[in-house]
Design a protein that fits this description.
- Belongs to the calycin superfamily. Fatty-acid binding protein (FABP) family.
- It contains two helices and ten strands; from the N terminus they run E-H-H-E-E-E-E-E-E-E-E-E.
- The chain is mainly beta.
- It has a single domain, classed as Calycin beta-barrel core domain (Lipocalin).
- The chain has a ten-stranded antiparallel sheet.
- Helix 1 packs antiparallel against helix 2.
C-alpha cells in the first residue's frame, strides 16, 4: 500500500550518507552540500496511480513522478542520469537506479510511525530517518 507513504516527512537523522555519496562517485563539494541538506520528503498519489516524490531542502528541490513497475528516466539531486524503476516489495518502496553500468537501491519503509530510507551501493549502506509532519 503506497498510501502509508503519502504526506510530508521531515528528516531527523542521517547515518553514513557521506560514505554512500562517495560510493556513488559524488564529488567533495556536492557531498558537503548533500551532508548539510536536511530535506523534507513529500509523497502524493494521483487518481491515475502516478506517485510524486519530492525532496525539498533550502539547498535544492528535486521531484520525480512515476508509476510502480514502470522504468523512467531520472536526473538525481547529484545530476546522475539514471534509468529508474520503483517497485513495492513487502510493503517497502524499492527504487533501483542504474547508470554507467552501476546500480544503487533506495529502500523506503514506514515503521513505528517513521519513514526509514536505506540507501545501498555495493556494501555501503546509509540510513536516513524521517518523521511525519502534522
Amino acid at each position: 500500500m503506497v498510501e502509508k507513504f503519502v504526506g510530508t516527512w521531515r528528516m531527523v537523522s542521517s547515518e553514513n550518507f557521506d560514505d554512500y555519496m562517495k560510493a556513488l562517485g559524488v564529488g567533495f563539494a556536492t557531498r558537503r552540500v548533500g551532508n548539510m541538506a536536511k530535506p523534507n520528503l513529500l509523497f502524493s498519489v494521483d487518481d491515475q496511480g502516478i506517485i510524486c516524490m519530492k525532496s525539498q531542502s533550502t539547498l535544492k528541490t528535486t521531484e520525480v513522478k512515476f508509476k510502480l513497475n514502470e522504468e523512467f528516466d531520472e536526473t538525481t539531486a547529484d545530476d546522475r542520469k539514471t534509468k529508474t524503476i520503483v517497485t513495492l516489495e513487502n510493503g517497502k518502496l524499492v527504487q533501483k537506479q542504474s547508470w554507467d553500468g552501476k546500480d544503487t537501491i533506495l529502500e523506503r519503509e514506514v515503521a513505528d510511525g517513521k519513514l526509514i530510507a536505506k540507501c545501498m551501493m555495493g556494501k555501503v549502506v546509509a540510513v536516513r530517518t524521517y518523521v511525519k509532519e502534522a
